Amino acid sequence: MGDNNIDRREFLKRVTNAGIAIGAVTGGAFLLHNRDEVISAGESIAKVKDFRITGDVLPQMAIAKGDSPARIVKAAVEGMGGMKRFVSRGDVVVIKPNIGWDRAPEQAANTNPEVVAETVRLCYDAGAKKVIVTDMSCNDPRRCFFRSGIGKSAKDAGADVQLPKDYKFRKIAIKGEVLKVWPVYTVILEADKVINIPIAKHHNHSTLTLGMKNWYGLLGGRRRDLHQNIHMSIADLAGFIRPTLTIIDAYRILIKNGPQGGSIRDVKMMNTVAVSTDPVAVDAFAATLFDKKPEEIGYIVEAYKRGLGNINFTELQPLIISA
Asked: If DSSP states are collapsed to H, E and C, what string results for the chain?
């Protein structure tokens, strides 16, 4: 992992020399269908706030390993200082898992339901007034929420489980390099804190889908258009939504045929959860679980270039916990 500890100038030099293609911002870049779309004069523009905790320094990352998904997420959060560091009494917390697919937990296409449920419990223990669990599924939402196990486990833990509704999307100015205006699920506007809980898995367009890619599940519109310049659009979303915490579920990872998967043969047990206040660093760590270097993943590179986090995750001196 010593190769990860490079300064920004040296990193950008290596990326340029390696010819990593992220996609041009101008010139030959693909344009999304609404890149130049403007909001009419009579339509209000909502603002998504920054959900990060200010003033904190350490710890910034904890990695827990063990046989119980609930136990390792609890251990990792405790290693970060406990959920009370992030959630205050009376907070409304939005938890964003990946519930995209009509798949069972063993198929590793969705976030592990035990990881989600334990996070809900930790938020309530910290004093949260309300915890909302939601996602914009790719398959039929009712089937996804049921078969993934997340709907029941989150509800049993006390969460307000919300299936997406068309009327809850509003066009919001993202102001990214590629994404200018896009329909966004307004549940994000209700939140005091936001916790991102993706599953780590292979993706046929972006190589991997980790934390930053998981924000696609808060967007409406035509998802295939997001894939036209996928690394740039993921980085746009990483700059648009700044979460309180990212919890990467790598208890099981999908090593090929993602993001939907289907075959148990494509699943690898890693028994790992990684928690961080730095969304770039935690994605960079998760990439190594697939024997990838972070600089091989275009959106991790782009987010680092934009100053959204540290690709050199070892500089965060992550705590390693056995639970």
From this structure: CHHHCCCHHHHHHHHHHHCCCCCCCCCCCCCCCCCCCCCCCCCCCCCCCCCCCCCCCCCCEEEEECCCHHHHHHHHHHHCCCHHHCCCCCCEEEEEECCCCCCCHHHCCCCCHHHHHHHHHHHHHCCCCEEEEECCCCCCHHHHHHHCCHHHHHHHCCCEEECCCHHHEEEEECCCCCCCEEEEEHHHHHCCEEEEECEEEEECCCEEECCHHHHHHHECCCHHHHHHHHHHHHHHHHHHCCCCEEEEEEEEEECCCCCCCCCHHHEEEEEEEEEECCHHHHHHHHHHCCCCCHHHCHHHHHHHHCCCCCCCHHHHCCEEEEC
Quote the pTM value: 0.87
pLDDT in the model for residue 265: 98
pLDDT band at 202 (very low <50, low <70, confident <90, very high): very high
Question: How is domain 52-322 classified at the CATH fold level?
Answer: Rossmann fold (3.40.50)
The domain spans of the chain are: 52-322
pLDDT of 8 reads 61
